[in-house]
Design a protein that fits this description.
- By secondary structure, the protein is α/β, with parallel strands linked by helices.
- The protein contains six helices and eight strands, in the order βββαβαβαααβαββ.
- The strands form two sheets. A six-stranded mixed beta sheet has the order 5-4-6-1-7-8. Strands 2-3 form a two-stranded antiparallel ribbon.
- α5 packs across α6.
- It is globular.
Length: 230
């Protein structure tokens, strides 16, 4: 016999669980793996005016770990940018799933103006006054010749909108850059500009796009990169 307390109560309700709205798109945002060290003696080549280093050996290993993590994620498509570090990070997953990555130029990294080619890393590492001002003001625009914030925001919004329109009721992986992930999630959360600028290499963040409603579902997940304790 069922005890009275075990019977469902007409006026009791379980906590709601998030459900992806009909027609929405789930975007798995993957920051590219670690890229090659910068050397001012041999600056990175530029593509679309952006630094274009290859992955380092550590980055290639991270790409394999991402593939293992996302192989069973139910992905319908894979996107990369015009910069090779995203394509190289996506390659192991694309091979496992038999998908041809699509290129979305609008998700290339923010333009760093005079600090492209690897100089950005040096200026940040040495706490250059302009780099400190960048962190304080939460703006890349303080860098000479950098991409204007309004233009960066607009192209990223447009790119997300294109992907969402192309993939209703689907989940897609987007291999992109730290600055782009920071911008996307700041827009979704209505946060400070640099609140999400710290995504680690090969980390996973999650966004649901339902029309004008962008919902952050995860940030900087690195569980697949962590070695088990032993």
């Amino acid at each position: 016999m069922t005890a009275p307390e075990d019977l469902p109560q007409a006026d009791s309700y379980r906590q709601n669980r998030f459900r992806v709205p009909p027609g929405a798109t789930e975007l798995i945002l993957v920051r590219h793996g670690e890229s090659a060290p910068a050397s001012l003696a041999s600056p990175f080549p530029l593509v679309d005016g952006r630094s274009d280093p290859a992955l380092s050996p550590a980055g290639r290993e991270q790409a394999q770990q991402v593939a293992t993590r996302l192989a069973a994620a139910g992905l319908e498509a894979i996107y990369v940018t015009t910069l090779r570090r995203t394509a190289e990070t996506a390659a192991p997953l694309a091979a496992r799933l038999g998908l041809n990555p699509r290129v979305e130029p609008g998700l290339r990294e923010v333009g760093l103006g005079d600090w492209e080619g690897g100089l950005f890393r040096k200026m940040v590492a040495e706490n250059h006054p302009t780099a400190l001002r960048m962190w304080e003001q939460e703006s890349f625009e303080v860098i000479p010749g950098a991409e204007p914030a309004a233009e960066f925001s607009r192209r990223v919004r447009d790119a997300i909108g294109r992907m969402a329109a192309a993939h209703p009721d689907q989940r897609v992986a987007v291999f992109t850059h730290g600055g782009v992930i920071g911008q996307v999630l700041a827009v979704a959360a209505g946060s400070r500009p640099f609140a999400f600028i710290t995504a680690d290499n090969a980390s996973i963040s999650r966004l649901v796009v339902a029309g004008e409603r962008w919902v952050v579902r995860g940030f900087n997940d690195t569980a697949h990169l962590e070695k088990p304790a032993g």
